[in-house]
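Form P-L/3: holo structure prediction, ligand S-adenosylmethionine.
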Amino acid sequence: MGPFRFHILVCTQQKPEGVTSCMANGAGTVFDSMEREVQALGLSGEVQVTSSGCLGLCGEGPMVVVYPDGVWYRRVQRSDVAEIVASHLRDGRPVDRLAWKDAAAIRAMSVEHGERFRSARAERERTGVLPERLDQMIRAYMPSRCLLTALELDIFTAVGEGASAGQVGALIKADARAVEMLLNALVALGLLLKEGGVYRNTAESARFFAEGSQDSQRRGLLHSANIWHRWSTMTEAIRRGTRVPMARADSPEWTVNFIAAMQRNAKDRAPLVVKALGRGGVRRILDLGGGSGAYSIAFAKADAEVRCEILDVPEVVPLTERYVSDAGVASQVSLRAGDMLRDDFGTGYDLIMLNAICHMFSAEQNQDIFRRARKALAPNGRLVVQDFILNADKTGPQQAALFSLNMLVGTNVGASYSEPEYTEWMKGAGFGEVLRINLPGPSDLLVGDTGPESTQAR
Ligand SMILES: C[S@@+](CC[C@H](N)C(=O)[O-])C[C@H]1O[C@@H](n2cnc3c(N)ncnc32)[C@H](O)[C@@H]1O
Ligand code: FES
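OUTPUT (holo model):
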């Protein structure tokens, strides 16, 4: 017997629009329900649910295969899942009405599909058609732009509990014909529903994109809409070697959205960072460019003895103040308006944090910050860099390589840097050990230790 009593394959192959596939027939919800139902019946330890690529039976999908029994279910709908899980996986009785028992027909259809697929691929290669993967990469801006415009126009809030295109247009003060085109595209993208001329939010859109919902991320996501404008200047930025000035950047609204985006990224990561760094020996923290204050807030909440100072630019400090006081830790977290490139840091800190900071600055600026941080730390103090960290040849991870361009289009001198660069800068600033701590998600920690020697004596 294998490690699991049953192994379930649910075909979730995506195919181009208009081509028959399990996903087009609802395999996504079948897969979700299968996982939920298996868990609900307490079978997670015995049943492994896996999404599979095309099984060559697309016209009969969604396909679900149960091993080791070798039962092939076809045209499975979400409403069938509870029965398959209870009857087959729990009670050992396959669901006859859904099982496709004609093994010869299954084999013939699958083999024929494989031959057709291979000859179509050979034909595409022969005629020089752009591969689907490249074509999708080229057109990826279309869905992205629709969603960002919908967020900018606050479409999901306007749709509310249900509205016609005319009502949405009137609410957001936009052209009704154009609004209808956008709403229809959002339906096509699975972000809205439409029935009899009335548009409604999907559960996800209502939760994450509409204002007023507890989990609304619209403000933070509007930062991506701002960044989108910057990315459209990339060709020119590459020629110049730096960002192209833009009137809309750095407005008060831009700053509010930017800090909301920082908070969105940081609030779930902050407790992980506190855990990874540990609270032992940490009493005084300097949080350079603290933004929404998420990391100081997490340290303060974890330990009532900890005191944090956040240094950020004057436009941001009032926003930070609100996040800190909403978190109820104002007595432990103080704020300083200034410029980390020029201001004196002070002395005696146990921890200095540079969360998502170094990518804004040049190599020389970072080295200067590291040297001044070294002097500001107490014996056994630590400097923490959290960032997208490139590998030595700077070609990956992909998010770090792409983020480097985000800095090209958005800053004067910023970039993503590699682990060897950060390590060299920390060592050059006088840090002894440099430790890498990997975190879930795209950014990791590099921690430089001062060791027991007193900094004041240096
Ligand atoms: C990418 S955000 C990171 C915010 C926060 N550390 C986090 O990880 O959520 C960069 C922060 O650095 C601040 N900042 C940028 N330049 C600065 C400077 N010269 N001095 C102080 N703060 C600065 C920005 O205002 C912003 O809050
Ligand atoms: S897409 Fe599912 S079998 Fe082909």
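COMMENT: The CA atoms of residues 17 and 230 lie 31 Å apart.
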